[in-house]
Every structure is written in C-alpha cells, then in structure tokens.
C-alpha cells in the first residue's frame, strides 16, 4: 500500500538567505502556483459534471434511468479523481494511492452498478468535485491577485519606462481627479518604494501559495485516496498472504527435512535390520555388526529429529522463556555472543516464537557473512513494543536486497505489525533492530 510523502523531500541546511526570502524563487512555489492556476478549469469541469449528473440522476430516480445515470456520474468522478491525483503527484509531490477497484460480486452491468453505488470512495470523490470548486475559485483569485501585483510592483523599476515612451505619462498613474491633480510613480524614491511594496506582496503571495497547496494536499489525501479503514484492510490482507506463504514455506522445509533426513535414515535402518535378521542364524557376528551399525543410525536419526523439532519450536523456549532459549542459541553460534534480556514478564507465545526465530536467523547471518569477533543480543520492552537489537562488530554493508533473508525477515515482521531497521555502514559493524507488538503471556 503507498501514502503521502514529504512534498519538500530532504530538508536542506539553513543558508545565509532566510527561507521566506528564498520561497518566491524556488521551483516548489512555482509548481504549487501552477497547480493553483490549473485548479480553476479542473474545478469548473468537475463541479459542472458532478452537479449535472447528480441532479439528472436524482431527477430520474422516479424511473429506472436514474440509477445508471448516478452510477455513470460516480464513475466519471472516479476518472476525474485519477486525473487530480496525477496532477497532485506531479505538481504538489503528493503520492496518494488509488481507491480500491470496483469488484462486483458477480459479472453484469447491474452488479457493477450496485457495487459502484455502494462504494464509499466513489461518493467521496463526488464530494471532492463539489467542495473543491468554491475553494479553487477563492484560492485562484486571491493568490493570482497578490502574486501578479507583487511581481509587477517588484519589477516596476525595469518597466516603468514604457509610460513616458509609449503612453505619454511620466509613470504609473495612481490617482487622477480630472482637474490636473494627478499622482504618478515617477521619482526614484517612489519607484524604490513601489518595488519594496512589491517585494512584500511577493513574499505574502508565496506564503499564500504554500498555504493553499497544503489545503489542496489535505483535500486530495482525504477525499481522493483510499480511506484509512480500506488501507488497513488491504494491509491486513497482504499481511495474511505473507503469513500464509511463510507457513507454507515452513511446511515444505519440514517435509523436505523429514524426507531427505530422518525418513531416509529410518528406511535404511529398516533394511539393515531386515538383513541382520536374515543373517542372525547363518552369521551371528555379521548380524551383530549390522545391529551395531543400525544402533548408531538410530542415534543419528534421533538427533536429526531433535534438531528438526528445535527448528519448529524449541522445548527450552516453551519451558523457560526467551532468556534461556536465546542463551542456548548464542552458545551454538560460531561468534561469541552476549545476551541481555530485560522483560517484566514473558510475552505471548507467538511473539516469543517470532523473536526467537528472528534472532536465530540474524545469528546465522553473523556466522556466515559478518566476519565479526563479537556480537550482542539485547531485548527489552518499551511501552507496547518488544524491542530486539542484534549488533556485531563485523564488516558491515548489510542490505535487504529483494528475496534476501533480511527482506524475508522484514516481511514476516510486517505481517504482525512489526518493523525491521538496519544500520550497517561499510567496515563499521551492523546493528539490526526489530520491533514487535507487546502482548503479555496469558497463563493457562
């Protein structure tokens, strides 16, 4: 799912010229002013279309024709809303996601019409077409009047010469009563004062343009994008898909480990015991040797099953909690690891499991790639979040490239409203912090 981002991008360092004085000459201000200029024709088009189709549809509701007319009006507003989102994306640097597509429960024009009329986002885009019109007229008139007057006065020293040259008067006329009492801007002091007043109006105009753009961003975000509830539903659906895919991958891994490991050993063991049984009377010594080998195979198979069970959910985690489980995990790491767990109570089993396996994968990455001589694991609770931080003093440079282990970890944490952040400057170690929702353990 995408959302609005900062229209200014990274904030520049303060320069010697104050931001208010730089604003009239920045590209952002002129983009936003162009957006205000285009607001008026777009608002007229959208308002005219929305009001016409709504009035026509409501007037025809006494017949069946009113329903499809209303649906056509809503569909048109959705199309115009897409144009407005594109315009905001290009000129206001506001990236607003599209509303969810209309998905009728069954094919057919009637089903599509019904789904469109029941869709809240379509009505919100109709509302935008109506309420945006008076705002667009007001913002256009105010900003254009102040902005054009300001630049005209600011640049007056450059163009005042046209009055004596072409108009037969000494300067810009401010007052005339028809009896010879005329006031012109023609002296150097008056020209300078007019230019100073123009600068003030330009600064005020740029502030008005910025403020108007913020209002436009709020209207586009609130009325033309997906609702917060819809966005949350989409996010949960995506997270559910991630969880299902992860569970399926884990099941395939367990099936593969059982098939290629313990199951294969048990099949070989059964064959060896069968051969030993046949040789028991003919060659007792060979049979005894085969039974001894089978006994060793049983030990290896049991160890593989224990490792597999530990990979599913370690018994020490269930019995004793995160502290002892992570200490046991750290003891098996090839890099020395210091473990610190500071939790008031045990978290819920699901959170414990995710924390354990996240730590396990991060320690595996340290062993394989970090070239570190020491690592630390810190776990603590802050407000309603469980924090996990794994740090090493290795070579750094870790990045969550697509389809990598770190990217998979980030997806799994996101599926439970978690977050993974990575700080890994080259040649300066790696710090990975995972946030998980805190849910206390419920006693049986």
Keywords:
disordered N terminus; about 450 residues; about 65% helix; two-stranded antiparallel sheet; alpha+beta; 5-stranded mixed sheet
What does this structure look like?
The chain has 444 residues and is α+β, with helices and mostly antiparallel strands. The chain is 65% helix and 10% strand. Strands 3-4-5-7-6 form a five-stranded mixed sheet, with helices on one face. Strands 1-2 form a two-stranded antiparallel ribbon. Helix 2 crosses helix 8 and helix 13 (349-370) packs antiparallel against helix 14.
Strand content: 5-15%
Low-pLDDT residue intervals, each spanning 5 or more residues: 1-13
The helix tally amounts to 14
Structural Rg = 36 Å
- The CA-CA distance between the termini, in Å, is 38 Å
For the largest beta-sheet, the strand count, sense and barrel status come to: 5 strands, mixed
**Which structural class do the helices and strands define?**
alpha+beta
How do the helices and strands follow one another from N- to C-terminus?
HHHHHHHEEHHHHHEHEEHEE
Helical proportion? 55-70%
Quick check: average pLDDT? 80
Main sheet: strand order:
3-4-5-7-6
Give the overall shape.
elongated
Tell me the number of strands. Answer: 7
